[in-house]
Design brief:
With 189 residues, this protein is of the alpha/beta class. It has helices spanning 15-25, 45-55, 57-67, 82-93, 135-146, 172-188, and strands at residues 3-7, 30-32, 75-80, 97-103, 120-125, 150-155. Strand 1 (3-7), helix 1 and strand 2 (30-32) form a beta-alpha-beta unit.
Length: 189
């Protein structure tokens, strides 16, 4: 079983993260859900993104790194939207990383270095306005070039956080398929 670090979206550490974490704990994984917003939550992505910009991305990454200091020697990072951007940074830089799950976020605008021992799996709705075309593919190519397995899945529709049952974006069929694929990813690790 894996030790999974799930990183919240720009909405903050909401009750939706508990529901999401339950999918993984029920399968036997150890799950940590650090709050890198220090208790702040938001009802809109725009307000949450504004907060993240005020705090600064590097500060958020530092908070996650500090929160994960005692979680063990082998970690899988999973992130939702903004959390996906942080998860990929941890996968790229943390030598303890053994996998990265990107939900509704992630990607690089140009090729980047990647760790060979860090497979990556990404999930997006095909018409998600927050998805930047080409950036996920660039990450997949960078990971593959480094020798890591890379998978990218697209789901129907245009909602953003379709895996979070506490948001209006939630789409049960797509969410269940996403969790099935993520659990298969963890089982291979």
């Amino acid at each position: 079983m894996s030790t999974l670090v799930l990183l919240h979206s720009a909405l903050g550490r909401t009750p939706g993260m508990d529901a999401i974490a339950e999918h993984f704990t029920a399968a036997g994984h150890t799950v940590h859900t650090p709050d890198f917003y220090e208790g702040r939550t938001f009802t809109t992505a725009e307000a949450g993104v504004s907060h993240s910009q005020e705090v600064g991305f590097s500060t958020l990454v530092d908070r996650v790194r500090d929160a994960c200091a005692d979680f063990g020697d082998e970690l899988v990072y999973g992130g939702f939207s903004l959390g996906a951007a942080i998860a990929q940074q941890m996968g790229k830089n943390d030598p303890r990383a053994r996998g990265v799950l990107l939900f509704h976020g992630g990607g690089f605008p140009k090729p980047t270095r990647w760790q060979a021992q860090v497979p990556v799996q990404a999930h997006f709705a095909v018409d998600d306005d927050w998805r930047s075309p080409g950036t996920v593919e660039t990450l997949m190519e960078s990971a593959t070039r480094a020798g890591a397995c890379a998978e990218h899945f697209l789901y129907p529709g245009g909602t953003h956080l379709f895996s979070d049952p506490t948001t209006a974006d939630y789409r049960e069929d797509s969410a269940e398929l996403l969790y099935e694929r993520a659990l298969a990813f963890l089982a291979r690790g």
